[in-house]
Every structure is written in C-alpha cells, then in structure tokens.
Specification:
single chain; 716 residues; alpha/beta; 39% helix; disordered N terminus
Length: 716
Amino acid sequence: MTSTTTPRPLTAMLHPANIAIVGASDKGPTARQRADLTRTGYAGAVYPVNPRRRELWDGPCYPDLASLPQTPDHVILSIPATAVPAALEQALAAGARSIAIHAAGFGEGGDDDGRALADKVRAIAASSDVPVTGGSFGGFYRQESGVMTLSLSRVAEGEGSPVALVGQSGGVLMFTYEALMDRAIRPTTVVASGSELLVGCADFVAELVEDDATRVVACFVESIKDLDAFGKACLRARELGKHIVVLKVGASPEGRAAALAHTGSVVGSLEAFEALAAELGVVTVSTQDELVDAVELLLHSGGLPGPRIGVISHSGGLKDLVMDYASRLGITFPKFDDATIEKVAGLLGTGSSLGNPLDTGFPGLSNPDIYRQCVEAVAADPNVDVVLVQEELPRSPLKPREEKYLRQLAEQVRSGAVSKPVGAMSLSSYSLTDHARSVRDGLDGVFVLQEASRALAVVTKAGRAATPARRAERQSPHPDLDAIRARLTELQRPGVPTPLSEHDSKQLLASYGIPVTSDRLAQSAEEAVKAAEEIGFPVVLKVAGAGISHKSEIGGVLLDLRDATTVREAFDKLAQAVARVAPGEQAEVLVSEFVSGGVELVLGLSRDLEVGPVVAVGSGGVAVEILDDVAVGLPPFDQETAAALLARTKAGRLVGGYRNAVHDIESVHRATIAIGALATDLGDLVEAVDINPLTVTADRACALDALVVLSPAGEA
C-alpha cells in the first residue's frame, strides 16, 4: 500500500529521503535510533552530526548540517534544550523539510526558564512552514518507509495492518503496539508526539486520516491543543469511512472552580471531551485493554451500525454472567423479534433458553449447522445491530471445534449470509499462541474480543459512536446581553474565580427563563419576618453574604420555618454562623419560599479548559458527587437534544414517570435549553453554574439553590 500522492505538511517526516541526527553518539538514544534504522531496512542515508567527532557509525561524522553531502530531509535534534534554538535555525537554513526536537526542558514542569525557551523555539519555527515536532518528541515508526526513531522491540514482517497509533507518551504507545502485535494486528504507523510545542495530535490525525495505508487511528492523549483541527480531522474520517478511537486521561484541575461549584467537581476534562467525541463519532475508551479491543473491533468490522447487541452463548452460566455484566454497565439487550424466537425455537427444541442473550446449549455446541442458522437468525433480527457470540481463538490444534466455528462465522460474513457485524468474545482474557494468531489471520470480517464484560463495554461504545449526537443550532442571544456582560465584567476579580451571591446568581438565571424560588434579602430579624410574610409561610433562611458558597457545610441553611418566631430565631442563629466564619461581616440572609417533595436534580455548566462550556444534568441534592449520575452535553440545546441529555441519567427515568409518578419533565428540558443559551452567550465570562437542587414536582421545576462563578478577569 502507498500513501496518497498529494503533498502534505507531515509527509517529509513520515517518508524522509534521508535523516540527519544532531547530537549523534556511539551510545544512548541516538545509537539506538541508528541501530533501529538498520534493523527496519531504511533505504535512505543516515547522517550523524557532532562537531566533536570525525567518524561515527562506521563512516564520517559531520560538524554541522551545512557540511552534509546533501540537503537534510528529516532532522533529529537530540541535544540539550538550551542548544535547540540555534540548532533549529541551522536546520531551517540548511533546507530541512521536517524537524523533530527530542530534547526535553521546555517548561513541561512549569518552570519559567523552560517556558521562555519554548516561546523562543515557537518564534523561530513560525518563520517557516516546515513542521517542527516536540519537545520531548518520542519518535515515530512508519513501516512503509522503514523509518523507526521510536525504539520498538519488534516490527511486523510482510504486510502490516492499516492501523496508526498517535499519542503524547511513547511508553504508552509502545505498550499498545506490543499488545496489538500479540493480537495479530500489526500497526503500520506509531507517532509519539511529546509535549507538542508546535505540531500536535490533531495534525497527525489529520495527516493519517488522509493516508491510504490507514483505516483506524488510535490515540492516547493528555490534552488536545487544537480542538478545532482535531474535530475537522474526525469529521473527515467519518466522511472517508475511517475510524478514530481515543483513550484520554483527565487534565489537571488548575484554573477550574471545582471547589466552588459542584458542577465543576462532577464534570471533569474527560467528561467534557467525551461529550465532544459523541458529536464527532469518535469512539472513547477508558482503559488500555479497551483501546486494544476497540482497534480490533473497528479494524475487522469496519465499524458498527449501532449499539444494540444480540448475544449467542453455549453456556447458561455465561448467559447469566453476561446479563449481570450488562446490568452493571447500564447496557440493555433488545428483545428479539417474534420471527427470530420462532426460528431459534424450531432449531433448538424444547428446554432451550430463548431470548436475548440466546443460550443455544448442547444443540448449538455440537451441531455447526444449527449454530450457523442461529447466528443468521439473530443477525437478521431488525432489533439487532451487531452479533456477539461465545467463542475464543484456539491456542492449539487440539481444539478443532473452536477453529471450525470461527471459520464458519468468517465464511458467513464473506458469503453475505450475515450482513451485520459479527464478533466473538471469550469468557476471560488469555494469551494468544502462534497457532491462535494464525487462526486470527484467517478470520476476515470477524472481530475477536477477550472477556465478556470488556467486550460488552467496547461494542456498546463503538456502536454509540456510529450515530453521533446532534448539537442544536445556536439561538439568538439574550436581548439584554450587552448589559448583562457589562455587569458581570464589573464583578470579575483578577486572577481568581468570583462567586456571585445566591441572590445575584438566581437573578441571572431568571433572566434566562430558568424558574427560581421567590426570594428576599434581609439584614435584620424584622426584615426577615417581613420578607417571610410577603412570600408566605413556610420559608427557608440561608446565609447570603460572606462569600460562602457551600452554605450547608456551616449550618447556613434552615428549612421549613412556619411563623415569625422561628424566623427571628433562625436569623439570629445564622448571624452567629456568619460571625464565626467571617468576623465583622454584616449578617445578611436570603428568605426563600419553602418547596418540598419532588425529585432533586442538579443542572449546571462548567467551562472546560479544552472544550469550553459544557452542561451537566442528573441526580442532585446533597449526594450529587456520591451518586455520580450526571450526563454531559455541549450547548446549545433544543427540545430534542435536551430530552436526550436527561434521558441518559437514572434521574431522567425518575422524572419521566417511574412507577407512574408524575413530574413536569418538560420544565426540566426548558431549563436545560435555557442554561445552554446562557452558556453560549456568557461561556467566556462564566466559569461554572451550579443549580442544586433543581426540584421537579408535578407542575414545575424550580431552582432552590444556585451559584454562578465568574471566570477570573482577563481570561475571557
């Protein structure tokens, strides 16, 4: 296979005519690179550059790049970070077409000197359109060109698999590469992008999506620095029928308001990225094993049409395990069509365990024709997107049944007897032998996964990616947006997030149409009584001043106050609480209507450092962080997308009429749409919004408590 012939910025790196290694030595990383290039059969010249050596690697060593016998194509800078700027200028002057900075020390640890050095490197690189990778560039492997500057212990012989690995950690990528090789998948490209001062993950994904030798790109990333470019590359992959799978680790919490708003603590970087990935059709996984499984699945299935799984087993025990695993993972199996049940009942006879999962028992285990017809019946079911059968690769020729059944599956796919993706899953994980890998090579069109729980999770994630989430069209901005922005800008503080009072937070939310409780501010017991009489008993009193965000933690919320006497007593108690945490502060309370009953939700937004504003909805109340029942989506929303977001939570089932309970679910959808509008209007000014609880009763949804946190001044 060959790459597309259209010149692209990274072509010179992946297909260099020659390689120059600055800082070459007869030991260490550069010596390993030279040995690896010999091992892979790289056909181009490799030039060592070191002014302190005359000869190296059985040939001449050059004092600088200008002394090379030909123009350097790919230049590796394996020198101290402080020497990189001058070497980078020399490489550009020499006509290099790609440059890799293998050195570290560009502020990765946050030091000011390193950051200044990084800025200098960026400025030099900006003077040219030559791609500069690194710092801490881990190297790369490209089977087609025979280049390996990332030291892999083994390389594939013969034709490789159309799989590319991209990530910021060379160590993680090497582990993934080895795991895939063990599974008879031979990646043709591996790129360890390092700290990405300039060229980043998005650039490599965009390059590889256009590459004829690549169908699946697997990424391990800590952060995506050019999210727009990454999104465009992922959409281009869908257009070309290719697949992106990402294992992302969460970013550090610096700059977030997690301590001020619950939403910030339950919605992290990973959840925000997954919301974006759902729109892009990207498969996101949670572990290294899932990353390997997802590559196996996407490579051999060509992608799934949806997440509805039809399961076929030979064992009643496995069926029970699968049902337990699915319950823990929140997966439900679709019911088989009546025609499917009738078909398999006729094949398996009385006493068989029909339904989904389907236990074929001894008839399916012992009769390949019955097994074949069961697979075809389940695959033909209109309620099924993908068929998952109980099989594993035989580790020796002494288990001919497994091999026979797997090869029969592959033949059913090849012949068109089964038109939906088919995969096999084992009961547990196991190591592949040479015999197992040889069988795997002959199973075109069938994916083979290990361990049933993991298999269910990966198939479901890949199936959901087949139908990307839809984002609503942006609404018209708030008619008073300029005035709102001006007011919030006045309240911002430099360097730190600014929490608004509950009263101010609710006023902002109410201006966007989010229903809030009837409230009054009071600075004395008598004012509190008057406010309570205007609102109507019973009422709630809350600490309103002193910049206290989590009032319940200091006893700053008193509920169900039913007369003037209890209101006066409550005011005095709250005044004492304020005096303890903020001596000298004027006691001020918020008097609110008391709302009881209903379902407590949390609704909020958080400004993610990479993705931007994201909205969360789910189970609320005092245990919001313990329940971990929150769905995250990207604003703006309309009725359909707001409903879909809530439906992903257990709280959505409660509000939607669980056990015939009646709640005003439409008001929750309207509130979600409204907070999405606030996010699109004010996402650069607002760090977080926390409505907890948003209580939903039969006739309304109402924000009982709310906190808006502004981003630090100057960050908008």
